[in-house]
């Protein structure tokens, strides 16, 4: 049971890191899109 919880925590940590990476990349993407639209409008 303890081993299972350790495994679960490991998976949770990996999932959290993946989510953070996804959030960062999507934030960068949104910034670039906004920048692109600003350049386009001028």
TrEMBL record:
Domain of life: Bacteria
Protein name, as recorded: Uncharacterized protein
């Amino acid at each position: 049971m303890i081993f299972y919880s350790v495994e679960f925590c490991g998976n949770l940590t990996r999932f959290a890191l993946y989510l953070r990476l996804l959030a960062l990349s999507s934030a960068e993407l949104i910034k670039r899109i906004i920048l692109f639209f600003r350049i386009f409008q001028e």
